[in-house]
Each structure stands twice: as C-alpha cells, then as structure tokens.
Design brief:
The complex is a heterodimer.
Chain A lengths: L1 H8 L12 H5 L4 H21 E2 L2 E2 L2 E2 L7
Antiparallel strand pairs in A: 1-2
Chain B lengths: L15 H12 L3 H19 L6 E6 L2 E7 L2 H20 L6 H19 L3 H15 L1 H4 L4 H32 L10 H5 L3 H13 L7 H9 L4 H20 L4 H20 L3 H22 L2 H32 L15 H12 L7 H15 L3 H27 L13 H19 L1 H5 L14 H23 L10 E2 L3 H60 L5 H14 L4 H20 L1
Antiparallel strand pairs in B: 1-2
The chains are: A mainly alpha, B mainly alpha.
C-alpha cells in the first residue's frame, strides 16, 4: 500500500540500472511487497513438505532419534 | 602488505589482556573470576584504541620469522568487535561459577583476536587451533552426556579444519617457500584449482559453516550451556569471515556458496522446534550474505561483509542472550513447550524484539550493513543472487524475527511462570540493544572504521527504506495469515535430519560394516592359518616322527637299541609321539644328523 501511493508520486531509484531487464520488474508498484509475501508463503509450504510428504515423514524424527 | 610504521614489542600483542584475563580467571574462584570476565575486555579495548594502523611485530618460531601481529583497518575493526562481544558476553556470564568455562571463554576471545591480527598463515594457524580447543568448553560446560558427545563432534569438525589449514599452508610453503606464507589473496590460485587454496578454503569453510559443513553449528550450539552460544556465535564464524575476506576476495565460487547458505537454512528454521537451532539456521543465512559479498569482492562489497559481520555479532548475541535467559529460568527451549512468557519476563521480551527487528529494520544495525551487500550485488548485475538474497532477507525476518519472539513469549500460555532474567543478563542485553540501535542510527561510526570507508554509501535512501519496509511488512503479513488460518506448521517435539545423518547414521553403519568385515576377516585368517595350517603342520610333523621311527624300527631292533617284540615297538611309538627319547638315543640321532650335514657341507 505504501509502495502504491509512493510509486505514484515518486520516481524510484531502482537497485538495478535501467539497462538490466529486472529494472522494469523492480519498479513495478508493489513488486517488493508481492515478492516478500509470496516467497515467504512458499517458504512455509515447502518447509512443511520437508517435514512430511503425503503422510510420509521425510526429515522429521522423534526427539530421541539419535539416542535410540 | 601495509608498510611497517613501527615495531611492536611481542609483549604488547592485542590479545594479551584477554590471555592474561583467561589465565587469571582460571586461578581465581567465585566472583573474583567473574571480574576478570569484565575487566580483561575493557583493558583490551582501551589498549586496542592506541594501536597504530600499519604497525607489526614478528616472532621467531621454530626457526621461522612469523609475522605475529599486523595491524590494519580490518584487523582493528574485528579486534574491536571481539572485545565488545567478550565484554557483553562477560557481563552476561557474570553469574557463571565454572572456572573452566570462564577461563576458556576469555582464552577463546583471545584466540579470535589473534586470528584477526595474524600477519601470516603460520600465526593464523596457531590461533586457529586455539579457537577450536578453547571454544568446546562452552559446550562441555553443560555437563550432560548429550553435551559431551556434541562437544566431541564439534571438536572433530574444528580439528579437521585446523589440519586442512595446516596441509594447505604446508603445500604453499613447499611450492613458494617463505613467501607462500604471506596472508595475501589466494583467489587466483583457487580459480586455477590449486590444491593448497582448495584445502585452505575447505578449512575456512568448515568454520564459516558452508553448506554440508554446517552441522557442527546447530549441533553444538543447541547443546551448549545457557551462556555458551553468546560466546560461540561471536568468534568462530566471524574469524572465518575475516580470513575469507583476506584470502578469497572476489572468488566467484563464494557467490554460489553464499547464496545457498542464505536460502537453505530458512526451510529448516520453519520446522525446527529447538529455538536456539532456529537461531543457528538464521545465523548460517546471515553468514551467507557475508560470503556472497566476499565473492563479489569489490571494495564496497568487502566493506559490506565486514560491517555485516560486526553487526551480526551484536544482534545475534543479543538474541542468543535472550534465549539463554529463557533456558536459565525455565530449563526449556523447545517452541512446543514455551509460550506466554512475556508477562513474567517483560524485559527479556523487549530485548528479544529489539534483537529480531535489528536484523533488518531501518534504524537498527542489520539494516545499514545488509543493504550494502544487497545493493552491491544488484550493481554488479547478479540478478538471481539478488533475488535470492532478497528472499533470504525476508525469510530470516519471518523466522528469527517473528517466529522466535512469538513462540517464546506469546503464542499460548505454557503454564510456566519464571522470574525475570538476572540483572547482569539484563545489563548485557541492554548493552547489545543499545549498540544495535546506536550503529543503526549512526552508521557513519562504523563506516569510518571500515577498510575502504564504505565509499560514501548511504543506507537511508528514501526508496531503499520504503522498499525494504515493504518487503518486511508483507513477509510479516504472510506469517500472520498463515498462522491465523492454521497453515503454519505447528511446533512439535521432534528433530529434523540434516547432513549429520550421513555421518551419524551412515557413518555408524560404515563402522559396523567395518567391524563385521575386518574382524570377520581376522577370525577367518586365524582359523585358517593359526588353528588350521599351523596345527596341521605340527600334527603332521609329530605324526611324521612316529611314522619315521616305525619305519626305522627293524633297523633299530637289529642294532638292539630297543627290546624285541611288540613291547619294544609300543615303547618306541610312545617315545616318538611324545618326542622324548633316552639321552643316549637323542645324542646318537643328533650325531647321525650332524655327520650327515657335515658331509653335505663338505661335498
């Protein structure tokens, strides 16, 4: 939201110079917000799969796994 | 190498005050030892301020002149960092009464200062080994079986690191003579694939927790004492960053390694239950940023890496202190068993929140150094790496920034009603919080100390602040939404397999396979050779003697040496099977054989 308001009234100094293709993407209104939101959502979803995948445990073990 | 301005006496090594403090603390008992924890870093800090950039000192060691101390901007900044970290951790550990822990923690800090000021590879190696040995006492100090085992695993990694470093140094020395020992960049050698540079990178990589070599970190820190990780997080990995910045600036492989480090631990952080391990994973993520910056290798990027190492110690030790206080008061650190502590530990809660927002929010220290790295990555056109770091930055806020304070102090009521942390702990947390805020608000104080002065970089650019805040807020929003809708993975009493599975399970399997294979081979050989072959030969020879005598019986009987008849034959058989014959007999046989051999020899 801040960015939307901000991008209407201000010219952003993008991190990339204008000849890099990412420049256009980066200066899109809301790019950073969307990026943060989606990647972190993806992070959690993927991490849950690392725990278990379709009821099958992948990385998660009982706490005394190493002792037993 | 910097020109030598003046020569320091060896007695004035910057690590000396910490060394003496450590030895004194080892002798003193009770509260007196704790004073050494506070006084040694203070004196060291005041001495450090008087050191002139460009001065150096040599030491004659095993017949070699080694550049024991070399003062440059980077060394000085790391020196300040290590002293400040030791001071804060010292105040925090003021109540600790274990002389081993106190003494070794100061010696550990001294080793770190030694690494920062080491002028060549030989002195670097000596201090490097010191780091390994002194640090493990922060884990063993817990005095549980698990801590003891974790300590040995930790030592295994760090001693291996020292040996790899030594191997690399010896190869360099073999190839280039004494010139090879200079602490100059090895980037070209690394890119040419030289073994020495590879070994040294691997040695530093173990200490810097490169992916695959990182397990010691989460394994050791999670088993350490409540104050242990405050010491551990300040020195070992930062020494590795310091050495990486000296030896491998601009090595492109580091960009790849660093990017992986910035991402993969985040996934583990989401599902990890032990909150100190969550911090360890976020620590690997932050070191990833520094490694990427060193890989880029421009002046500004190296400055960014060093500045970030500095700030990272401040906020990470603050967070470890807060969690240490929670362990100290509740004896618990699993997210599944904690929650709702904010009513009982309000100050600790406040400091934890400061620590977590200090990682990336404007006005706090993490922001002013991480920005340098991310901007420099973008300027050098690494699009993918930039996106990964942006994700790393958002993700670490999601984990260390929100998960840790939320699950410890809020979330739900765990039914625990601990007291607030002891005063000395609160003072230490306050000191670290103040520094986080102070450097965040006055970044020029830090920038001026950097080797290249950060080349006039300004982190407080309106666009930059807004975009970074935006990414953080939306990352936070995703946490809130996931949590509210019950999609966030619940905290479960569990552990997660990491690379350690390879050596802890596969290694164990390998060991038992080795046990079965080699010991089986041993048994088989024993059966075949010792009981089988040797036994067979001895039986054969024994029986052979009996048969020979039996064959010779008619002659012996004729000569009249035994009685006639069956009785005589039986006597002879028994004598020969026992191998005993009357003396005269034996002498006769010997004589016969002797003559026989004599004839053989003569003719």
């Amino acid at each position: 939201m801040i960015d939307l308001v901000f991008s209407l009234a201000w010219h952003k100094h993008a991190a990339f110079s204008e000849d890099v293709s990412l420049h256009a993407l980066e200066t899109l209104p809301g790019f950073y917000g969307l990026f943060g939101f989606l990647t972190c959502g993806g992070l959690v979803v993927l991490a849950k799969f690392m725990r278990e995948w379709r009821g099958k445990k992948i990385l998660m073990r009982k706490e005394d796994y190493w002792e037993s | 190498m910097t020109l030598l301005g003046s020569t320091l006496e060896i007695g004035s090594h910057p690590a000396l005050t910490l060394l003496i403090g450590g030895l004194v603390a080892g002798v003193l008992r009770g509260r007196h030892a704790s004073f050494a924890l506070v006084l040694a870093p203070l004196f060291g800090l005041s001495y450090l301020a008087t050191l002139e950039v460009g001065s150096s000192s040599t030491l004659s060691l095993f017949g070699y002149e080694t550049l024991f101390v070399m003062v440059d901007e980077q060394a000085k900044l790391f020196g300040y960092l290590f002293h400040i970290a030791a001071l804060v951790a010292g105040v925090y550990s003021f109540h600790v009464r274990d002389p081993w822990q106190i003494s070794m923690s100061l010696l550990y800090a001294a080793s770190a200062v030694g690494v920062a000021f080491a002028g060549d590879l030989l002195s670097l190696f000596l201090w490097w080994e010191g780091l390994a040995i002194t640090s493990v006492f922060q884990i063993w100090g817990r005095r549980t079986k698990r801590a003891e085992e974790a300590g040995f695993r930790y030592l295994f990694f760090h001693i291996s690191s020292g040996l790899l470093l030594l191997a690399g140094i010896l190869i360099l020395y073999h190839n280039n003579g004494a010139d090879g020992l200079a602490l100059s960049p090895l980037t070209d050698e690394l890119e040419a694939g030289e073994l020495s540079a590879l070994l040294i990178l691997l040695a530093v990589g173990i200490k810097a927790a490169f992916p695959g070599l990182h397990v010691w970190l989460k394994d050791g820190y999670a088993e350490a004492t409540h104050s242990g990780p405050v010491w551990l997080c300040a020195f070992t990995t930062k020494c590795a960053v310091c050495v990486l910045a000296r030896l491998f600036p601009g090595a492109e492989v580091l960009i790849v390694i660093g990017t992986i480090m910035a991402i993969f631990p985040l996934f583990y952080a989401v599902i990890e239950n032990d909150l100190r391990r969550v911090l360890c994973y976020s620590k690997i993520n932050q070191i990833g940023f520094m490694v990427v910056a060193i890989g880029i290798g421009t002046d500004l990027a190296i400055d960014g890496a060093i500045a970030h190492a500095f700030n990272h110690v401040l906020y990470k030790s603050l967070l470890f202190m807060c969690l240490g206080a929670v362990i100290f008061r509740t004896g618990e650190i699993r997210a599944s068993h904690l929650g709702g502590l904010f009513k009982y530990m309000p100050w600790t809660t406040g400091f934890t929140i400061i620590g977590s927002i200090a990682i990336s929010f404007p006005l706090f220290c993490g922001f002013v150094s991480k920005s340098i790295i991310i901007t420099e990555v973008a300027r050098n056109g690494h699009v993918l790496v930039w996106m990964c770091l942006l994700f790393g930055s958002a993700g670490v806020f999601h984990q260390a920034g929100i998960k840790i304070p939320f699950f410890t102090f809020f979330a739900r009521d765990s039914g625990r009603h601990p007291k607030e942390a002891p005063v000395n702990m609160l003072i230490a947390m306050g000191m670290a919080s103040f520094l986080c805020l102070f450097i965040g608000c006055n970044p020029q104080w830090l920038y001026e100390q950097l080797p290249n002065g950060a080349a006039g970089y300004n982190p407080y650019d309106a666009t930059h602040i807004i975009t970074q805040l935006e990414i953080l807020f939306f990352s936070g929003l995703s946490f809130v939404l996931l949590y509210v809708f019950g999609k966030y993975p619940p905290s479960l009493s569990s552990l997660n397999l990491d690379i350690d599975w390879i050596y802890r399970k596969l290694g164990h399997g390998l060991l038992s396979f080795g046990d079965r294979f080699w010991n089986g081979l041993n048994d088989k050989t024993h059966q075949l050779l010792v009981t089988g072959l040797t036994g067979g030969i001895s039986t054969f020879l024994k029986q052979g003697q009996v048969h020979t005598m039996n064959t010779l019986y008619p002659i012996i009987e004729k000569v009249g040496l035994v009685e006639n008849g069956l009785k005589g034959k039986e006597h002879l058989r028994r004598r020969s099977s026992l191998g005993v014959h009357p003396v005269g007999w034996s002498a006769l046989i010997c004589m016969v054989f002797f003559l026989f051999f004599l004839i053989l020899i003569i003719f």
